[in-house]
Amino acid sequence: MIKILIVDDHAMVRSGMRLLLDGKADIEVVGEASEGDEGIREAEALRPDVVLMDLSMPHGKDGLTAAAELKERMPDVAVLILTMHDDDEYLFRAIHAGAAGYVLKSAPHEELLTAIRSVAKGDAYLYPTATKRLMHEYVERMKRGESADVFDTLSEREKEVLTLAAQGYANKEIAEQLTISVKTVETHKSNVMEKLGLKTRPELIKFAMKKGLLRFD
């Protein structure tokens, strides 16, 4: 069962989403919120698998800011941006904020269901034209001689965990320093290793040294 939290400032949209999703055997809507801060509080209380996050919410914290903060606090929760904005700037900002997917509100219901099921199992989801635009942007960057540094894809929290782990701190010690749970540290560390393509702690230390994250007296 995929547990869903809906965060949208329009009550009618939330009701429509709940009606659609609650009718599916493998999906359960566990809660709703009308703005970003409330969404974060509800996510921490309800522990959903997927948060459906509206992009533009005029009152309280907006969707992008909330998504980034939510991923810092709960990295194992998938955030799926649901928006009316078919815009490259919003798309790239959503990805940078840590969103696992980006779906237009105008998309067919089946596309939304596919996106939810995809991000719930750890995959990413972008609507087809967005994928094409991302690929085009990547090709253009390569033509300009630019190279993507995977280190830049890490969140600030992931960089902190990387640095402390490379310095030899145990998960419990890292959790105490950053005031987060040991489970969250483990999730961040796993994400870091996967993103950087690292397998062992010596590889992690070597990477941290290369990036200047370690200092020796």
UniProtKB/TrEMBL annotation:
InterPro entries named in the record: CheY-like_superfamily (IPR011006), NreC/VraR/RcsB-like_REC (IPR058245), Sig_transdc_resp-reg_C-effctor (IPR016032), Sig_transdc_resp-reg_receiver (IPR001789), Tscrpt_reg_LuxR_C (IPR000792), WalR-like (IPR039420)
Cited CDD domains: LuxR_C_like (cd06170), REC_NarL-like (cd17535)
Domain Response regulatory span(s) in chain numbering: 3-120
SUPFAM superfamilies the record matches: C-terminal effector domain of the bipartite response regulators (SSF46894), CheY-like (SSF52172)
Keywords from the UniProt entry: DNA-binding, Phosphoprotein, Transcription, Transcription regulation
PTM annotation (4-aspartylphosphate): residues: 54
Domain of life from the UniProt record: Bacteria
Record-annotated HTH luxR-type domain positions: 147-212
PANTHER family: TWO-COMPONENT RESPONSE REGULATOR
Protein name: Response regulator
Taxonomic source organism: Paenibacillus aurantiacus
Organism phylogeny: Bacteria, Bacillati, Bacillota, Bacilli, Bacillales
